[in-house]
Every structure is written in structure tokens, then in C-alpha cells.
Amino acid sequence: MVGLEPTNLAVHDFESCVFANFTTSARVLRNLELSKNCSIIHYIGLFVCPIFVVWVRKANNYLLIMAKIISLVNQKGGVGKTTSAINLATYLAAAGKFVLLVDLDPQGNASSGLGFDIRTIDKSLYHSMILGEHPSKIIMRTETLGHDLIPSSQDLAGAGIELVHMDNREFRLYNVLREIRTNYDYIIIDSPPSLGLLTINGLVASDEIIIPVQTEYFALEGLSQLLNTITLVRENLQPNLKIMGALLTMYDKRNRLARQVVKEVQDHFPGHVFDSIIPRSVRLAEAPGFGKSILGFDAFSRGARSYKNFAKEVINLEKKDTKKFSV
Ligand SMILES: Nc1ncnc2c1ncn2[C@@H]1O[C@H](COP(=O)(O)OP(=O)(O)O)[C@@H](O)[C@H]1O
Ligand SMILES: [Mg+2]
What we know:
CATH topology of the largest domain: Rossmann fold
Mean pLDDT: 85
Bound molecules: adenosine-5'-diphosphate, magnesium ion
Number of helices: 13
CATH architecture of the largest domain: 3-Layer(aba) Sandwich
Strand content: 5-15%
Strand order of the largest sheet: 3-4-2-5-1-6-7
Number of strands: 7
Oligomer: single chain
Low-confidence stretches: 1-20
Structural class: alpha/beta
Radius of gyration: 23 Å
Distance between the termini: 21 Å
Order of helices and strands: HHEHEHHEEHHEHEHEHHHH
């Protein structure tokens, strides 16, 4: 299973490339020898060339931009996954990054929140994950430059069941995103409110996870189950999966309980709670009704500022390459 991991694939390509180049050189050498026509320079050249070709290919691997894939996960509904996914993607794009938002939730809130009607969409993530269509055929442009979307549709609700009998059922999304990963700087996945096969596909496809936590009663409820699932995915399917951090959402500073929850979450994820805290804001709740991100709806609101800071933090975290929290 782990053999599908991207770096392993690159290593495979690298080895077969070296082997193929040396085999070709050996053949050419044999022919030259037969014709008694070669000098020592020919010999050296024929062995140095393949090393050079391989080196160039390897360097090219590093130069290729590979999107960082981030899932927003929490099996609880209504904690701000979709709102955070939409606005993180928008502000990353506004910062000049190429971003793809993947709507993995059959309810399609990320798609409708950006103004797409999932009942009338021709092709959705379902067509790529289940029917094998190339993802470039289902990607849609949003109104923010550099921000694309793979929309969801109601078909995806049945996908959770269809996947059960499919080969590589946990790797379907990973395989879809692998096709387009070099086109983006970030791929953001909005997960459904469950820990079913769709969410597992999201985790397996991801490099990092952000856990939105609502600053309300029972905020930490279910988090240990989520952390167990992440551990299982890491042990069995995606060994490089990391937790980037917890994002506190819908914070009301007048509420004493909210302040307590912030403290509890900080104790739960020491050093891995984002400094940006998303306030409870009517403008954030209204924006999806107009099919807009908060940047398009009210760029000067408190909610807009908090998501802008959050996107900055995500970009800076990557630069720092800090040690990530592990469970
Ligand atoms: N910071 C916020 N302030 C006020 N309302 C919010 C905020 N974040 C999300 N909401 C609203 O709360 C509801 C649930 O948010 P959503 O992002 O859809 O959560 P999830 O994707 O986890 O189910 C939505 O109606 C959304 O508009
Ligand atoms: Mg949602």
C-alpha cells in the first residue's frame, strides 16, 4: 500500500532511469568495440553521459512544484471546516499562490459557497474518483484568480458505498490528485463530517491536516477518535501524514467559556494551535449565501482579516519547516 507514496514513485523512476541509461551505454560500447573504433574518451563519455542525464532528471524533480495537500478534518459538523477551506484557499490565491479547492463533502457546501449549483454541475469529483475521468475535465475556475475548484455533487454520497468494493479504495483521491499536483502550490481538501471512506481518501491524499475546532461546549469531544484515525492512517496507509495544527473558530471573546476552550485546545495540541483565531462573525456566515468568499463579500471585516492572517501563517509555517505535532 505504502508503495504508492509519491517519493517512492520518484525513487522507482530514478532507479529505472539509471538502469536504462547504463544498459543503452553498454550496448553502444559493445558495438563500438566491435568496430574497433573507440578511444578512451568514448568510454568515459558514454559512462558520464547517463550520470549527467540522471542528475538533470533528478534536479528537475526538485524543481517541479508539487502542491502541498492539506485536509481540513473534523468529524463533527458545523465547526467551520468548509468556511475555513473556502477562505484559506481564497487568501492563499490572493497571496499569489495557485490553489485548488477539492470539495470532498457530498453536501457540496464548498462548491455552493463559491457560487456553483451542484445540482446543475455536469461533472464532479465523483467522475474522477469513481469513473476514472481525468481531473482536468472537472476542474472549474472561481472568481479569484489562481483559485480552482473540483466541485462535489450528490453522486458523491453513494461513492462512500461504491468505494467499499473498489481496488485501492483508500487511494482513489490520491491517484486523482497525483495527475494535477504539479499545477498548484496548494491543494485544500474540505472533508465531510464523518470518518468514513471519503475522509480516509482525503487523509491518504494529504501531506498535512488542519483541525478546525469550534470554541463552544464539547469542543474536544470526538478529538481522540479523530487522532486515533490519523494514527491508523499514518501506520497503515500514509506514513508522512502530519498535523499542521488546530484552528480555533467562531470565537466570541465576551464568552468566558470560549476563553476556557482556547486554553484546553492549547493544552491538547501544545505548540500546534494557530495564532490566528477566527471570530464569530455574521459576515462570515452570510458570505456563502451570496456564493462568495469573505474576500469577495466583505474584505474589510474582522472575519476577512482573521482568514488573511491564517493564510499567512500557513505560508510561513511551510517556510519554517518546523517539527510537526505527532500523535
Ligand atoms: N466564524 C464564523 N462566524 C459565524 N458563523 C460561522 C463562522 N464559521 C462558520 N460559520 C457558519 O457556521 C455554519 C457551519 O460552518 P461550516 O463551515 O459549514 O462547518 P462544517 O464545514 O464544519 O460543517 C455555517 O452556517 C457557517 O456559515
Ligand atoms: Mg462542511
